[in-house]
Amino acid sequence: MSTLSKTLAILDFFGPDSLQVSAETILERTGLSKATVYRHVKDLCDAGLITRVGSGSYSLGPRIIELDWMMRQYDPILIAGRDVMHKLAEETRLAVFSSVFYDDRIINTYIVEPTETFSFHFGRGQPIPLFSGAQSKVLVSYQKGRRLQKLFQEKIAGNPNHPYHDWSWQDFSRAAKKIRKDGYCVTSNELTGGLKGIAAPILQAGSKEAVGSICAVGTEERFALLHNDSVIERVTETADQIAANLAEAET
Asked: Whose CA is closest to 138, among 51, 197, 63?
């Protein structure tokens, strides 16, 4: 591992349950010398990626906020999809999420909320459990064969707290295959109680690789008024339009 990789790896210690990390924790988890750890920490502080809080603890720094702002301005999926996502939310009064898969994590990158205010357990930027919730199931299911099997073995079957940890690989593979065949996924009460989600993949032009997903989220009552098949059609149309916009921007 390069020096840069070791420095940046410290950022992985931060998460929803560890918003502050102590120097002692970094020392324990890296196994590096005290002088080396403090050199890495200083480099991260100088770059604005982390900042010191209190006595000997650190949190994410202001550079993260700046990078987040830049991403929202220039992220290709948001540029290609922001307008059509807002249109879908306005037409359905459902919340609309865009999500991506990176480094074995799934996060919502953008959320359009309708007039109603929902209490989401997983908002923008907060990692979503693998294969829980419509957008997560779509993005996991569209991973290629060996990677899909590795994700299942290491993150699902290997996690006793995961709701599908007792599934066989055959059960999981069949479920993922059905999602790919249908081209969408419908879930209820998986990420937030009382809410339903319908998600579809944003496919890279000329391939079956999902570069992201679009998900409409709302109450069961709202979906009943809109009719399930109608929402599925609108979500898949929106995902296809974003994929077309991405392809057009690349030409």
From this structure: 197
